[in-house]
Amino acid sequence: PKHYYYPNGLLKTFQDPKGQLSTYTYDKANRLLEVAHADGKATTYTYNELGFLTGYVADGISTTYTYDNLGRKLSETVDYGVFQKTFRYSYDARGNKAGYTSPEGLEHTYAYRKNDQLASVTVDGKVFSVAYDKYRPIKLTSPDGIETTFTYNANDRLTGLTTSGPSGALLERHYNYDNVGILQSRSTEHGDYRYAYDDLYRLTTADRPTSANEAFTYDKLGNRLSSLATTGTWTYNANSELILNSQAEYEYDANGNTFKKIQNGQITLYEYNARDQLEKIYLPDGRIATYGYDPAGRRIRKQVGNTVTYYVYADEGLVGEYDATGTLLRSYGWQPDSLWGTSPLYLAEDGQFYFYHNDRQGTPQRLTDINGQVVWSASYSAFGQAFVDPNSTIENNLRFPGQYYDAETDLHYNLHRYYEPTTGRYLSTDPAGDGLNPYVYVSGNPLNAIDPLGLFSVSDALKGISSGLGAVNGFLQQIDPLTLAKSALAEIIGQLECAEPSNWYTQMIVTNNLLLARAIYGMLNGPEALADEFADLFENPSWWNIPIFGGIAQASKAYADNPTYENAVDFAGKAVGALAFFYGAYKLTGNVGGAAVVEGGAKSVTSVTNDFFAGTKYTDKVFKQMKQGDWHSFPRSVEGFQSAGKVTKITGGDGVAREMLKIPGKYKP
After folding, report:
1. Domain holding 205: CATH number?
2. pTM
3. Does residue 668 belong to any structural domain of this protein?
4. What are the pLDDT digits (tens) for 382-418?
5. What pLDDT is attached to residue 162?
6. pLDDT beyond 50 at 199
7. 474 assigned to some structural domain
8. Are 182 and 502 in contact (CB under 8 A)?
């Protein structure tokens, strides 16, 4: 690919390996006004006087946004040409999302504890409630009376998940980990599962109690070389493109997109637009599936044969499916501000509500009706192929976090790409360039990571922080949050600077988040830089993180006026939370409370569960080391680079257990 820039450094044109050109136009404030593509389609953007995105027009659809005076989104209206849909948000005095009104006018009310942890979700008189210990969720009660309880080990990793209904336990899960938090086994209502990994933490065996065991081997780049389910040779080219296995043959275009699959003599053809989004599939039975997308890459329209379905998305994921006339088919509810597509609460259809009961990663296991009776159930292969109970009486298409099952193709739509669970691979390369292999799912480690955006892996630990009711972070570190934020941003900047996006959308993500990261990093390194850097921030607003400005403004001013430790925690949490999109979340995290003493004399940030630093532990000794300049790296270094080295458990002089990463070679400053 080739990139051409304006003198001010903004992207002007992008040429992909096919020779397709995309051209970018900006206003005097460097805000993106138009993206024109080689297929003749263009997207235009409009902004208000404060620089907030007020709307876009793209490929026959348009969307408009309204905001409050803190830049928080109040409403979003999508015009599909044949009908419009609008949803709305409200906020409480502390900045928490207090309510969501669906396009059909269904009110969702969110209540919080004094420390801003989510306490309940009420929809149509139906209440989901959450109970906590000091800072961890320990019980979730659904409107049908079914309770899910959570237990944890000393490292705050989820060790137990039990979902009980009127007829007994629906889910009974107990998890065992190694010293670095990798899942080794789980006992369930069906029996015991056991797992093994290679030196790079790629799954090699999955022993299952009630179905066939799974086993895999890999080459140096993570390509699957063998599988018990698909025997025989797996053949790849130099680009890690799967060419052949015993089940199918594949062919690719110059951009690395799968355009042809031959299976049992049947041919499936895939056609992509100028943004490398899957636009048409020619199925072996003669049907044609067509797909349409908005500028954020969300699929908003699907047509298979004569059946047309439209989709509406809120901040947390899919909230509505509609037919060609705009009549509601299904609606969905989510935990507020949860990681995209990871925490479904309910599915509603024909006036009936059904409630999700998920596993530790957020994958649906059961759905129950208002009487607590199971209406849908499934088990999964290690890489996400669902085996739906034939006795299920409703349809549920949610799969791995962020994935939606397409019955016409057996593929999973995963926001930016399409996933084939039988091979553990995507049809196209990773637009964000995450990992050594651009096709494989979460580097071959599906039991310990998720990819809700189809862009990059997110560990269970981060998912736990980002999700309002998720498992608590398994990588809690003893570290000063302000230094942690600086280190985090330094790493984010480094990753963004090295990124080579393959399409216009991810190029925008990288460019604008890089500007934002540098600005926030400057703020964290000195209150005196706040005014200038924050002004720069407003000159370069990105539409996907517009809601962050109000929260950062308040926190940065408080820190500049009074640079206490508590204000540093608040500002650091918001600063890194503002970049959460890069790690798979769309929304700025909530307000941070102070610090509380926890076990062993350590302290823990007390905050909303979805704050970036919620539960982060530190000791007075470590905090003193931080103030003296002692460097403690950002904890995601251990997770992100563990495949390149060796992770061991150590105990510091303060008696606190930590994880140490050793990478072979020499460091060059």
Report:
1. 2.180.10.10
2. 0.74
3. no
4. 999 999 999 999 999 999 999 999 999 999 999 999 9
5. 97
6. yes
7. no
8. no
Q: Write out the two tokens for 179.
A: 């010293």
Report if residue 236 sits inside a domain: yes
Q: For helices 565-578 and 548-561, what crossing angle results, to 10°?
A: 160
Residue 574 CA to residue 613 CA, distance in Å, equals: 9
Residue 18 lies in a domain: yes
Of 35, 53, 42, nearest to 542 by C-alpha is 53
One domain, residues 458 and 488? no
Structure tokens at 103: 């396009």
State the chain's mean pLDDT as an integer: 79
Tell me the pairing of strands 118-123 and 317-322.
unpaired
CB-side exposure of 432: number of CA atoms within 13 Å?
22
DSSP track, 490-546: HHHHHHHHH---SSHHHHHHHHHHHHHHHHHHHHHT-GGGHHHHHHHHHHS--GGGT
Asked whether the beta carbons of 576 and 612 are under 8 A apart, the reply is: yes
Let me know whether 497 and 573 are in one domain.
yes
Q: How many CA atoms lie within 13 A of 142 on its CB side?
A: 29
H/E run at residue 565: helix 565-578
Residue closest to 186 by CA, chosen among 376, 361, 372, 367 = 361
Please identify, among 442, 466, 490, the residue that sits at the C-terminal boundary of a domain. Answer: 466
| 247 and 332 belong to one structural domain | yes
Query: Which residue type sits at 136?
Result: R
Within this chain, do residues 430 and 491 fall inside the same structural domain, yes or no? Answer: no
Q: Are residues 12 and 123 in the same domain?
A: no
Among 107, 214, 171, residue whose Cα is nearest residue 358 = 171
* DSSP string for residues in 233-271: --EE-TT--EEE-SS-EEEE-TTS-EEEEEETTEEEEEE
Q: Is the pLDDT of residue 229 over 60?
A: yes
Domain count, the chain: 3
Q: CA 47 to CA 33: how far, in whole Å?
A: 9
Q: What are phi and psi of 375, to 5 degrees?
A: -115, -10
Whether pLDDT at 61 is above 70: yes
pLDDT in tens, 267-300: 999 999 999 999 999 999 999 999 999 988 899 9
Tell me the DSSP string of 589-636.
---EEEEEE-GGG-EEEEE-TTSTTTT-EE-HHHHHHHHTT-----TH
CA distances from 243 to 110, 125, 254, 427, 619 (A): 49, 53, 14, 12, 53
d(CA 511, CA 513) in angstroms, rounded, equals 6
Residues 453 and 490 placed together within one structural domain of the fold: no
Q: Does residue 243 share a domain with residue 359?
A: yes
Q: What is the pLDDT of residue 499?
A: 54
Cβ(534)–Cβ(512) below 8 Å:
no
DSSP string, 112-160: E-TTS-EEEEEETTEEEEEEESSSSEEEEE-TTS-EEEEEE-TT--EEE
Among 420, 435, 466, identify where a domain stops. Answer: 466
Which of 174-183, 297-306, 649-658 comes out lowest in average pLDDT? 649-658
**Structural domain of 37:** 1-49
Q: How far is Cα 303 from Cα 584, in angstroms, rounded to an integer?
A: 28
The pLDDT value given to residue 607: 36
pLDDT score of 307 more than 80: yes
Burial class (CB in 10 A: 0-12, 13-18, 19+), 521: buried
Q: Which helix (H) or strand (E) holds 570?
A: helix 565-578
Q: How far apart are CA 10 and CA 1, in angstroms?
A: 16
Q: Which of 400, 468, 457, 441 is closest to 582 using CA atoms?
A: 457
Pair (322, 433) in one structural domain: yes
